[in-house]
Amino acid sequence: MNTKYSLERPPANTPAFYATDDGTDPYERTVFAHYFIGNSEWYVLEYNPLEDKLFGWSEILPDMGELGYTSMEELENAVIYGQIVFGGETSLFPIRVTYDTHWQPRSLNECLKLRR
Using CA atoms, how far apart are residues 42 and 23, in angstroms rounded to an integer? Predict the structure, then answer.
């Protein structure tokens, strides 16, 4: 059975692309959704549901975070494999990106400070 992995989309009140681009510091803008896998994180500032793309801050590798665009498809296709050894047998299992269902909107600066 082959089923497609699907993530929950950002909330309906997430601003459209460029809606918050008013000259203010992007790090003071509100993060409306949060996705993560392992130590990698995505903080969503804007969302385009027609293209199913996000704009926000992401950090895939430690200390390599940046503002940019990504698609929901890329997040849904991202997978890392965990390893478990039981009875001398090693098995791999997939770990996928997770939508943070307990997310409380806050500024990007606050998000980054909380990570440290």
Answer: 22
Comparing CA positions, the residue from 116, 3, 1, 108 lying closest to residue 57 is 108
Q: Report the 10 Å Cβ neighbour count for 83.
A: 8
The string of pLDDT tens digits covering residues 31-85 is 999 999 988 999 999 999 999 999 999 998 888 899 999 999 999 999 889 999 9
Bigger pLDDT: 6 vs 11: 11
**Angle at 107 (CA atoms; ends 55, 103), nearest 5 degrees:** 80
40 forms beta bridges with: 37
Gap between the Cα atoms of 48 and 4, Å rounded: 21
Q: Are 60 and 40 in contact (CB under 8 A)?
A: yes
Q: Which amino acid type is present at position 55?
A: F
Alpha-carbon torsion, ordered 45, 48, 52, 58, to 10 deg: -20
